[in-house]
Amino acid sequence: MQQREEVFKKLALVNDPELDRSLTELEFINEVTIQDSSVTVSFRLPTYWCSTNFAFIMAEDIRDRVSELPWVSNVVVRLEDHCAAAEINEGVSSRKSFFETFPNMAKGELQELRESFRIKAYFSRQEKLIQYLIRSGLEHAAILNLTIQGLSELPFFEAEGTVLAERYLAIREEFGQGNQPEQTAFIRPDGSELDPESFPDYLASARLIRLSMEFNGHHCQGLFQTRYGTEPLSEMEACKNESSAFV
Predict the structure, then answer these.
(1) How, if at all, do strands 29-35 and 15-16 pair?
(2) Is 176 left (phi over 0), alpha (psi -120 to 50) or beta?
(3) Crossing angle (nearest 10°) for helices 159-174 and 111-135
(4) Number of H helices, E strands in the chain
(5) pTM score above 0.70
(6) For 53-76, how does the pLDDT look when each residue is reduced to its tens digit (9 = 90+)?
(7) HSE (side-chain half, CA atoms, 13 Å) at 57
(8) CA distances from 141 to 137, 138, 166, 183, 205 (A)
(9) Which of 43, 42, 46, 31 is nearest to 217 (CA)?
(10) Beta-ladder partners of 76
Protein backbone atom coordinates (compact mmCIF):
# COMPACT_ATOMS: atom_id res chain seq x y z
CA MET A 1 0.00 0.00 0.00
CA GLN A 2 2.81 2.39 0.86
CA GLN A 3 4.48 1.86 -2.51
CA ARG A 4 1.22 2.51 -4.33
CA GLU A 5 0.71 5.74 -2.41
CA GLU A 6 4.25 6.82 -3.27
CA VAL A 7 3.60 6.18 -6.97
CA PHE A 8 0.40 8.22 -6.91
CA LYS A 9 2.16 11.09 -5.14
CA LYS A 10 4.63 11.17 -8.02
CA LEU A 11 1.84 10.95 -10.59
CA ALA A 12 0.12 13.89 -8.93
CA LEU A 13 3.15 15.96 -9.98
CA VAL A 14 2.61 15.16 -13.67
CA ASN A 15 0.50 17.79 -15.41
CA ASP A 16 -1.34 17.95 -18.67
CA PRO A 17 0.90 20.72 -20.05
CA GLU A 18 -1.92 22.42 -21.93
CA LEU A 19 -4.22 22.57 -18.91
CA ASP A 20 -1.73 22.87 -15.98
CA ARG A 21 -3.69 20.27 -14.07
CA SER A 22 -2.39 16.99 -12.71
CA LEU A 23 -3.21 13.69 -14.39
CA THR A 24 -4.52 12.29 -11.10
CA GLU A 25 -6.88 15.22 -10.64
CA LEU A 26 -8.10 14.87 -14.22
CA GLU A 27 -8.48 11.11 -13.64
CA PHE A 28 -6.35 10.38 -16.70
CA ILE A 29 -4.50 7.62 -14.78
CA ASN A 30 -6.35 4.41 -15.49
CA GLU A 31 -4.32 1.75 -13.70
CA VAL A 32 -1.12 1.28 -11.73
CA THR A 33 0.40 -2.15 -11.16
CA ILE A 34 3.49 -2.88 -9.09
CA GLN A 35 5.54 -6.03 -9.42
CA ASP A 36 8.57 -5.99 -7.12
CA SER A 37 10.53 -2.95 -8.33
CA SER A 38 8.73 -2.62 -11.67
CA VAL A 39 5.82 -0.19 -12.06
CA THR A 40 3.37 -0.10 -14.96
CA VAL A 41 1.20 3.00 -15.39
CA SER A 42 -1.60 3.15 -17.93
CA PHE A 43 -3.28 6.43 -18.79
CA ARG A 44 -5.89 7.67 -21.22
CA LEU A 45 -6.91 11.00 -22.73
CA PRO A 46 -10.17 12.75 -23.66
CA THR A 47 -10.12 11.77 -27.34
CA TYR A 48 -8.52 9.26 -29.71
CA TRP A 49 -6.75 12.09 -31.50
CA CYS A 50 -5.49 14.24 -28.62
CA SER A 51 -2.32 16.10 -29.56
CA THR A 52 0.51 13.61 -30.03
CA ASN A 53 3.20 15.95 -28.70
CA PHE A 54 1.31 16.63 -25.47
CA ALA A 55 0.59 12.92 -25.04
CA PHE A 56 4.30 12.20 -25.48
CA ILE A 57 5.22 14.83 -22.87
CA MET A 58 2.83 13.30 -20.35
CA ALA A 59 4.14 9.79 -21.01
CA GLU A 60 7.73 10.98 -20.57
CA ASP A 61 6.89 12.80 -17.36
CA ILE A 62 5.10 9.77 -15.91
CA ARG A 63 8.17 7.65 -16.59
CA ASP A 64 10.59 10.22 -15.16
CA ARG A 65 8.59 11.09 -12.04
CA VAL A 66 7.92 7.48 -11.01
CA SER A 67 11.57 6.61 -11.74
CA GLU A 68 12.58 9.09 -9.03
CA LEU A 69 11.38 6.63 -6.37
CA PRO A 70 14.47 4.88 -4.96
CA TRP A 71 12.90 1.42 -4.94
CA VAL A 72 11.77 1.59 -8.60
CA SER A 73 14.06 -0.02 -11.20
CA ASN A 74 11.74 -0.05 -14.20
CA VAL A 75 8.73 2.01 -15.32
CA VAL A 76 6.45 0.95 -18.16
CA VAL A 77 4.04 3.60 -19.47
CA ARG A 78 0.99 2.54 -21.43
CA LEU A 79 -1.06 5.18 -23.25
CA GLU A 80 -4.45 3.66 -24.12
CA ASP A 81 -7.10 4.38 -26.75
CA HIS A 82 -4.98 6.86 -28.72
CA CYS A 83 -4.13 7.04 -32.41
CA ALA A 84 -0.37 7.15 -31.69
CA ALA A 85 -0.34 4.92 -28.61
CA ALA A 86 1.91 2.22 -30.09
CA GLU A 87 4.58 4.70 -31.20
CA ILE A 88 4.49 6.71 -27.97
CA ASN A 89 4.61 3.64 -25.73
CA GLU A 90 7.55 2.19 -27.64
CA GLY A 91 9.37 5.50 -27.86
CA VAL A 92 9.06 6.34 -24.16
CA SER A 93 9.97 2.80 -23.08
CA SER A 94 13.07 2.93 -25.30
CA ARG A 95 13.91 6.43 -24.03
CA LYS A 96 13.77 7.79 -27.55
CA SER A 97 13.15 11.49 -28.04
CA PHE A 98 9.99 12.80 -29.70
CA PHE A 99 11.88 13.43 -32.94
CA GLU A 100 13.37 9.93 -32.88
CA THR A 101 9.92 8.45 -32.26
CA PHE A 102 8.23 10.43 -35.03
CA PRO A 103 10.99 11.18 -37.58
CA ASN A 104 8.53 11.71 -40.42
CA MET A 105 6.22 14.00 -38.48
CA ALA A 106 8.17 15.91 -35.83
CA LYS A 107 9.86 19.17 -36.73
CA GLY A 108 11.97 19.15 -33.61
CA GLU A 109 12.04 18.29 -29.92
CA LEU A 110 9.53 19.39 -27.32
CA GLN A 111 11.54 21.54 -24.92
CA GLU A 112 10.41 24.83 -26.44
CA LEU A 113 6.79 23.67 -26.28
CA ARG A 114 7.22 22.63 -22.64
CA GLU A 115 8.68 26.01 -21.71
CA SER A 116 5.96 27.91 -23.57
CA PHE A 117 3.18 26.20 -21.65
CA ARG A 118 4.94 26.49 -18.29
CA ILE A 119 5.08 30.26 -18.84
CA LYS A 120 1.34 30.23 -19.55
CA ALA A 121 0.82 28.25 -16.36
CA TYR A 122 2.83 30.84 -14.43
CA PHE A 123 0.66 33.68 -15.72
CA SER A 124 -2.51 31.73 -15.02
CA ARG A 125 -1.62 30.79 -11.43
CA GLN A 126 -0.38 34.28 -10.66
CA GLU A 127 -3.47 35.97 -12.09
CA LYS A 128 -5.82 33.72 -10.12
CA LEU A 129 -4.07 34.62 -6.87
CA ILE A 130 -3.98 38.33 -7.68
CA GLN A 131 -7.69 38.32 -8.50
CA TYR A 132 -8.33 36.67 -5.14
CA LEU A 133 -6.36 39.44 -3.40
CA ILE A 134 -8.26 42.14 -5.30
CA ARG A 135 -11.56 40.54 -4.35
CA SER A 136 -10.35 40.52 -0.75
CA GLY A 137 -9.83 44.28 -0.83
CA LEU A 138 -6.17 44.85 -1.74
CA GLU A 139 -5.29 47.68 -4.11
CA HIS A 140 -2.82 47.23 -6.96
CA ALA A 141 -0.08 49.16 -5.14
CA ALA A 142 -0.42 47.01 -2.03
CA ILE A 143 -0.24 43.85 -4.13
CA LEU A 144 2.91 44.98 -5.92
CA ASN A 145 4.56 45.81 -2.58
CA LEU A 146 3.86 42.41 -1.05
CA THR A 147 6.79 40.21 -0.10
CA ILE A 148 6.59 36.45 0.23
CA GLN A 149 6.39 36.90 4.00
CA GLY A 150 3.71 39.54 3.66
CA LEU A 151 1.71 37.26 1.42
CA SER A 152 1.89 34.46 3.98
CA GLU A 153 0.74 36.78 6.77
CA LEU A 154 -2.39 38.14 5.09
CA PRO A 155 -5.20 37.76 7.63
CA PHE A 156 -8.03 36.94 5.22
CA PHE A 157 -6.65 33.80 3.60
CA GLU A 158 -9.13 30.95 3.60
CA ALA A 159 -8.89 27.51 2.01
CA GLU A 160 -9.29 28.85 -1.53
CA GLY A 161 -6.63 31.52 -1.08
CA THR A 162 -4.24 29.05 0.52
CA VAL A 163 -4.56 26.64 -2.41
CA LEU A 164 -4.02 29.43 -4.94
CA ALA A 165 -0.97 30.73 -3.04
CA GLU A 166 0.57 27.26 -2.74
CA ARG A 167 0.21 26.66 -6.46
CA TYR A 168 1.69 30.05 -7.31
CA LEU A 169 4.63 29.63 -4.95
CA ALA A 170 5.28 26.17 -6.39
CA ILE A 171 5.63 27.49 -9.93
CA ARG A 172 7.82 30.37 -8.70
CA GLU A 173 10.11 27.72 -7.26
CA GLU A 174 10.01 25.84 -10.56
CA PHE A 175 11.13 29.02 -12.36
CA GLY A 176 14.06 29.37 -9.98
CA GLN A 177 12.70 32.54 -8.39
CA GLY A 178 12.89 31.21 -4.85
CA ASN A 179 10.50 31.97 -2.05
CA GLN A 180 12.61 33.71 0.53
CA PRO A 181 10.56 35.85 2.98
CA GLU A 182 12.03 39.16 1.84
CA GLN A 183 11.51 38.57 -1.90
CA THR A 184 8.87 40.43 -3.87
CA ALA A 185 5.82 38.20 -4.23
CA PHE A 186 4.66 39.23 -7.70
CA ILE A 187 7.13 39.51 -10.56
CA ARG A 188 7.17 38.48 -14.20
CA PRO A 189 8.11 34.95 -15.30
CA ASP A 190 11.55 36.21 -16.39
CA GLY A 191 12.16 37.65 -12.92
CA SER A 192 11.75 41.31 -13.85
CA GLU A 193 9.68 43.61 -11.66
CA LEU A 194 6.16 44.79 -12.31
CA ASP A 195 5.38 48.50 -12.28
CA PRO A 196 2.11 50.20 -11.30
CA GLU A 197 1.60 51.90 -14.67
CA SER A 198 1.62 48.75 -16.78
CA PHE A 199 0.07 46.49 -14.13
CA PRO A 200 -3.56 46.72 -15.42
CA ASP A 201 -2.46 45.75 -18.95
CA TYR A 202 -0.29 42.97 -17.55
CA LEU A 203 -3.26 41.61 -15.58
CA ALA A 204 -5.55 41.79 -18.62
CA SER A 205 -3.07 39.80 -20.70
CA ALA A 206 -2.62 37.21 -17.94
CA ARG A 207 -6.38 36.93 -17.61
CA LEU A 208 -6.76 36.06 -21.29
CA ILE A 209 -4.20 33.29 -20.89
CA ARG A 210 -5.95 31.97 -17.79
CA LEU A 211 -9.38 32.01 -19.44
CA SER A 212 -8.05 30.19 -22.49
CA MET A 213 -6.53 27.45 -20.31
CA GLU A 214 -9.71 27.11 -18.27
CA PHE A 215 -11.86 26.90 -21.40
CA ASN A 216 -9.63 24.14 -22.75
CA GLY A 217 -9.75 22.43 -19.37
CA HIS A 218 -13.56 22.42 -19.23
CA HIS A 219 -13.74 21.24 -22.83
CA CYS A 220 -11.28 18.38 -22.29
CA GLN A 221 -12.86 17.39 -18.99
CA GLY A 222 -16.30 17.19 -20.62
CA LEU A 223 -14.96 15.07 -23.46
CA PHE A 224 -13.21 12.74 -21.03
CA GLN A 225 -16.29 12.34 -18.83
CA THR A 226 -18.42 11.57 -21.89
CA ARG A 227 -15.91 9.12 -23.30
CA TYR A 228 -15.33 7.16 -20.10
CA GLY A 229 -18.42 7.92 -18.01
CA THR A 230 -16.50 9.49 -15.13
CA GLU A 231 -17.98 11.89 -12.61
CA PRO A 232 -17.29 15.66 -12.60
CA LEU A 233 -14.84 17.01 -10.04
CA SER A 234 -16.18 18.08 -6.67
CA GLU A 235 -16.47 21.81 -6.01
CA MET A 236 -13.37 21.87 -3.80
CA GLU A 237 -11.30 19.82 -6.24
CA ALA A 238 -12.23 22.17 -9.03
CA CYS A 239 -11.31 25.13 -6.86
CA LYS A 240 -7.71 23.97 -6.78
CA ASN A 241 -7.27 24.98 -10.39
CA GLU A 242 -10.27 26.91 -11.46
CA SER A 243 -11.28 30.41 -10.58
CA SER A 244 -14.46 30.91 -12.52
CA ALA A 245 -15.65 33.28 -9.78
CA PHE A 246 -12.81 35.67 -10.61
CA VAL A 247 -14.32 37.19 -13.73
Answers:
(1) unpaired
(2) left
(3) 150
(4) 10, 5
(5) yes
(6) 999 999 999 999 999 999 999 999
(7) 23
(8) 12, 8, 22, 16, 18
(9) 46
(10) 40
